[in-house]
Amino acid sequence: MGKNVVESYHAIRITTLKRRGWLAGGGYPGHLSWSRLGERTGSIDLLTWTSKGEGTMMMYTYSKTEIFSHEVKLVSTPCHYGGVRWWFICPLSRGGIPCGRRVGVLYLGKYTGCRHRHDLAYQSSKDSHKFDRMAIDMGCDPRAFSRMMNQIGK
What is the C-alpha separation between 134 and 146, in angstroms, rounded? Predict the structure, then answer.
C-alpha cells in the first residue's frame, strides 16, 4: 500500500497567507476552506501576527463539541534582491522530537505538520514507481522495465 499522498490532505501554503496580505506586519484574522467537486471538505479560522521577520499563526478548527487550536511559528529569510521569504516551522513531533523544519506547506491531519513528519509522498512519485515490484518479481531492472512499460503505453 505504501505512503499516503499529499493530495489527500488539506494544505496551508505560506504563499496563500502572503498573497492575502496576512504576513504584512501586525495581526490579521483569516479563514481558509477547501472543497472537492463543489462540496466543502474542510475549513479553519486563523490569526497571524508578524513583526520584524518573525511571527505566529494560530489555527482554530471546530468539531461538533470542541474547538481545537494549533500554534505554528513563522520565520522569514532575506531574499538576494530584497524582501523576505516567509516559512512555517513544522510543529509536529515524532517520538518526542520536534521537527522544526522550515517549510512552505503544512498538511492538516489529526495533527498539523510538514509532509516529512506526516510521512507523505506525492502521487506522481508513486505513479513513477508503479512497475517496480513487477520488475523485481520478474528479475528485471526496475528502471529499464518502467521505461519499456511507458513506451508500450504511448
Answer: 10
